[in-house]
Specification:
Length: about 180
């Protein structure tokens, strides 16, 4: 999904997000994340959208993407979760943790290799439930905020009537 179409669903980013340190992240993890995920994160991160989705970002002091990835990979290696059907890590065929929700769900991108057409989204809904969406990240975000996915693990009143994006600094001040 292109960013213009996504913006029609969740609204425009309300502020100029800091530009990410994607090259540093790529060097550290030796993986390139899909362009649609990067574009979404640059436009809407760091922050919180619709009282549900945390957008982690490479240059965020509180929602730093690299730290989030490292911590969840380390956690998954220490406490394996049988319900997740793929290993958590950075390599091809593994799940990369990239986002979280206010319910405690972890959102993953399946590393499909250099051809980003093979990447997809998975959600670990606080165990034991695993949900897999064979679609690009921005398509999943659009489906989530349109209410066509996520009904199993998101509150009944979801999606909200209006979707607001909270800048990270305001979220930590008021949230």
């Amino acid at each position: 999904m292109d960013m213009d179409a996504l913006e029609r669903i969740i609204g425009p980013a309300p502020y100029a997000a800091p530009r990410g340190a994607w090259d540093e992240l790529r060097r550290e993890f030796d993986v390139s994340l899909p362009p649609d995920f990067v574009a979404f994160t640059e436009a809407y991160g760091p922050g919180h959208i619709g009282d549900m989705l945390y957008v982690h970002h490479p240059v965020s002091p509180k929602l730093e993407l690299g730290e989030f990835i490292r911590e969840w990979i380390d956690f998954a290696r220490q406490v394996p979760v049988d319900e997740i059907p793929y290993p958590v890590g950075l390599g091809e065929g593994e799940l990369i943790p990239v986002a979280s929700t206010s319910n405690g769900d972890i959102v993953y991108l399946f590393n499909g290799g250099a051809d980003f057409g093979d990447w997809f989204v998975g959600v670990d809904s606080r165990c034991p439930d695993w949900f897999e969406y064979r679609m690009p990240y921005t398509d999943w975000v659009a489906a989530l905020f349109s209410g066509t996915v996520g009904r199993e693990y998101i509150a009944d009143e979801w999606p909200p009537g209006s979707i607001s994006t909270i800048k990270e600094e305001d979220f930590w001040r008021y949230g």
